Amino acid sequence: MPQQPSSSKPPWLLPVIVGIAALVVIAAAYFLFFGSGSSNDSDVANRPEGEGGGVVDVVPQGEEDEIDLSHVERRDSEDPLSIGTVDAPVTMVMFSDYQCPFCASWMDETLPVMMDYVDDEQLRIEFRDLNVFGPESVRASHAAYAAALQDSYMEYHQALLADGEIRQPAELSEEALLDLAAELGLDTDQFLEDMHSEAVQEQILENQRLGTDLGAYSTPSFIVGGQPMVGAQPTDVFVDAVDQALTDASE
Q1: Can you say whether the dihedral through the CA atoms of 235, 76, 95, 35 is positive or negative?
Q2: Cβ pair 164, 198 in contact under 8 A
Q3: How many CB atoms are closer than 10 A to CB 89?
Q4: Measured in Å, how far apart are the chain's first and last C-alpha atoms?
């Protein structure tokens, strides 16, 4: 009588599946930051430089085989959307949207832990608005920048994402954003003028281009010590990433 085929899987199958899954994850991260967002040379050459930082090449010449995005760090002491000393050994760049619920949860759960590193002068965080959810997000980013020009960026930023929750679109109207500025004690006349200024508009567009040129089309996206990270992953993942970046920086 012929033997029935065994239903058990070959012993080599599981490692192969795990290996393929790992490659898929790496490829996805690489595509997110280097894929469809890249532009041709003529597009980049014709772009104006924004205040506080110019156009950034997606992959510097000669580094095509490396994933190192540390060149996007501005480390500009005049950058109003940053916290932490410019001399911190590690910089985190965060691309976010004020209508992104995962960005809100990251601000509520992970930022307080990251602030320990900031306070110890080990980490600098540079926030960049990547407005993927529409005109309300764009309006909110202008408002946050206007608040930043009155040295109140983090207060305004966190108020827009209070308790890890996003605001409804109606709560991101110009009137609502102006009311929030008043609640925080800002000069509302100056706030409104800055919110509609050409300089603020140019900087918002520059930050948007920075994200899209890197291929970051989802929020939140991060660069930690030059390495891309995607999504509001558990806080421990960010702790490990910053610790590793600090180790690398000390070598």
Answers
A1: negative
A2: no
A3: 18
A4: 67
Is 121 within 8 Å of 85 (Cβ atoms)? yes
Pair of tokens at residue 217: 């089309």
Q: Is 61 left (phi over 0), alpha (psi -120 to 50) or beta?
A: beta
Nearest Cα to 76, choosing from 161, 157, 148? 148
Per-residue pLDDT reduced to its tens digit, 184-209: 999 999 999 999 999 999 999 999 99
Q: 230 — alpha (psi -120 to 50), left (phi > 0) or beta? A: beta
How many Å is the maximal CA-CA distance in the chain? 92
**DSSP label at 228?**
E
For 94-120, how does the pLDDT look when each residue is reduced to its tens digit (9 = 90+)? 999 999 999 999 999 999 999 999 999
Tokens 């960005």 belong to residue: 103
Structure tokens at 157: 């930023």
Q: Which amino acid is located at 204 in the chain?
A: I
Cα separation, 233 vs 220, in Å, equals: 10
Sign of CA dihedral 247, 124, 233, 223: negative
Looking at residue 115, its amino acid is M
Angstrom CA distances, 204 to 29, 47, 131, 196, stand at 25, 14, 9, 11
| pTM to 2 decimal places | 0.74
Here the tokens at position 204 are 């918002």
